[in-house]
Amino acid sequence: MKITTAHDFFHFKTQSLTLNLFLEQEKIVRKIVEDVYINKDEALLRYTRHFDCPDFQYEDFVVKNEEIELAYEWCEKNDPEFLLAVKKAYENIECYHKNQLEKSWFYTTQNGSVLGQLIFPLKRVGIYVPGGKASYPSTVLMCSIPAKVANVEEIVLVSPPNKQKKLNTYVLATAKICGIDKIFKIGGAQAIAALAFGTDILPKVDKIVGPGNLYVALAKKIVFGIVDIDSIAGPSEVAIVADESANPTFIAYDLLAQAEHDPLARTFLITTSKDLATEVSRQVEDILMAEPNEIARESIENQGLIILVEKLEQVVDVVEKIAPEHLELLCKGWEDLLVKIKSAGAIFVGEFSPEAIGDYLAGPNHVLPTQGTARFFSPLGVYDFVKRTSLIKYSKSDFLKNHRHAVKIAYIEGLKFHARSLEVREKDVQEGA
Questions:
Q1: Does 326 qualify as catalytic in the annotation?
Q2: What domain range is 244 assigned to?
Q3: Does 378 count as an annotated binding residue?
């Protein structure tokens, strides 16, 4: 890993890898989205045959209950520990997210006006679960549980099929545990478009959540506004703050755990100890030699950085510049840092709180803001699956007392009929007196 100083780090040119890639591919994705909008299921079948399974048929899109039950039964027989792990994760994630529940609220003014906010769950949400060679049951857990806690009426899951027209067994078993209402075998930008517009096969949803490749991210960007989305996620990152007391082996594996996600994943070690920096760099290289991983190696070589700081006080400025998706604090004095750092998706404190425990089991959501967007975005939560409606029941007393202020602002803005709608009420009251 490259080693630099905090001073040099602040003079690096900020990279916009995600944005550059978006701009190059957006025209392709826009054509797919428009095709699905116009041609609906015919387009879905065409793209699924092209990208996933050549002999796919219309009737193959919908996952039948028998397929879900068979997947669950297979896990019961062949991998019961997986089901135990998923159920424990479900319990922890549900417990955490129940604390995020919002309630409707109201208050009454002295003159009898009632003001408040109504909270309603979304009617239908779509979850995108990546396919390919990997299996992502954790995506099903993290995206569906806060929606269930929010009392979303219907949860729809989409995932690309393999060449045998099947979805991943572990994903299906997890979907059963999570109580997913409908599951469809479809992936890519075309799946996002179908969820946004609705087709005869796929229902239109109110919000789309879940990770995906560049094409999925771009499709979510394009349909935002037609539906809501969680975020336009880019390559993720971890920043680890450590001093001489930290275990270099723990750090090395935590960096590699992030690096194995994506060649563009960013990994940072911020430390006051040059000896620790050297040792972690050496161990990362030794691990990659002993356990080769091309994705992790490319990420570490191109996106990995060790930043030397003179004192922990400098850490805050460095972290705020990165605004990392994941932040690990493996140092003394972490309490002081915790109250000063404002821009991180999730913070992991202590040597037994690695990012991986948060990814799967601890309870907080692992769908987090990436690429520095932790400066203004939050983790996925129950609040993402509800909508808020304002309530105004103004009393006659409050109206007569305050309406002239609104009249004044309306005339300043040049909106005469806004003002007149207020003035006619005052006139009506006066004539009726």
A1: yes
A2: 234-376
A3: no
